[in-house]
Amino acid sequence: MFDRPDSGDRAVLVHLTLHSGQEDLLELKELAKSAGTDPVYVVTGSRKSPDPKYFVGKGKLDELKNIIETYSADIVLFNHPLSPSQERNLEETLGVRVVDRNGLILDIFAQRAQTFEGKLQVELAQLRHLSTRLVRGWTHLERQKGGIGLRGPGETQLETDRRLLDLRIKQIQQRLGKVDKQRHQGRSKRKKAEIPSVSLVGYTNAGKSTLFNKLTGAATYTADQLFATLDPTLRSCRLPDNREVVLADTVGFIRHLPHELVAAFKSTLQEASEADLLLHVIDANAEDRDETIVQVNQVLTDIKADKIRQIEVFNKIDLLDKISPRVDRDEAGNPLRVWVSAETGAGIDLLYQVLAEIFSIPKIKRKCYLQPDQGDIRAKLFSCAKIIDEQIDAAGVSELVIEIDARQLNLLNSVKIEEML
């Protein structure tokens, strides 16, 4: 096997027009910068189908050699998934490190992971990606073990590495299974307490974390880069009617999200797939915003979250001319989308109102009579109901006019009550 050169910062980007549009090239540049490389040159072209050996044709291969030498580049980033053999053949010919789109995204995720769970999820995705490279990419591993006590028709090195890889994958899956159970228990407790859950989803760098911080008062990390948020964050949020909801800030989606990542981040994405409401955050200033909406909805379909009610939040309106905060509704008056700026706070009050409207519970007005020994019920009513009026007679009986959630009427089971018009 050839020696794989160390990766560096100076990168040559390769983008061929096959099925994807030119906007993918802009995304590749952002991915390259997010990974910490310095893109020094972009090679573009078009082909009907990839070359089975090098992905690019012979002419482009020679062009790449010259560009690498001219710019002293030490890594080539492809905006396409490469087969293990294509990756190996390119590195042998070019003499520099070659990384495909999936490997680039995995590398960014590895840099962003901060929590124990996040690191496990990234390692699982990387191992699954690596397992395909063990099959055909590294032919030197097909040798059998040698040396005293190891000669003969034993296990080949490739089989040993594959077995150890499978063992590590199973260990990580078991650990993530425990994390998944803990998350499931947390969601079950919130459902029992009837606390609604809202997940922020959207294309990467749409401003989800900034909006999350604005709504909850949290201080999660934000940056103008792809995948700034990797580890999910949950925070409580109070609505104008004093109702509590739980907000979840999730990992950003991207075109052609590698299947390894979707599988590895199953427990994280479940925050979206089991939410009561999705806030689909959209960069209103993005030129390709319509396409990113389609891509996000495709990922939501993949994780079986496409049936959950969704409100579109068009963010970054401060970067647009003559766009004011507003709520768009359908013919029945139901909210469809809210136009806001998480950076300036414009329209956040409208978003709060929409959330309160969606999760509002009918209030019922009642007159109730509490005996002097029912002080515990009185205390509960003062904590969860609106007390409109209270009168206490000479015998110590309290006459209260209250406004209470319909689901909390069970508090009045042992109390004399009267309906009010």
In short:
This protein is of the alpha/beta class.
Folded structure, characterized:
Mg(2+) binds at residues 209, 229. It is found in: Cytoplasm. With 421 residues, the protein is an alpha/beta fold. It is 39% helix and 22% strand. The strands form 3 sheets. A 7-stranded mixed beta sheet has the order 6-7-5-8-9-11-10, sandwiched between helices. Strands 2-1-3-4 form a 4-stranded parallel beta sheet, with helices on both faces. Strands 13-14-12-15 form a 4-stranded antiparallel beta sheet, covered by helices on one side. The longest helix is centred in the middle third of the chain and has 36 residues, at 157-192. The model is unreliable at 1-7 and 136-152 (pLDDT under 50).
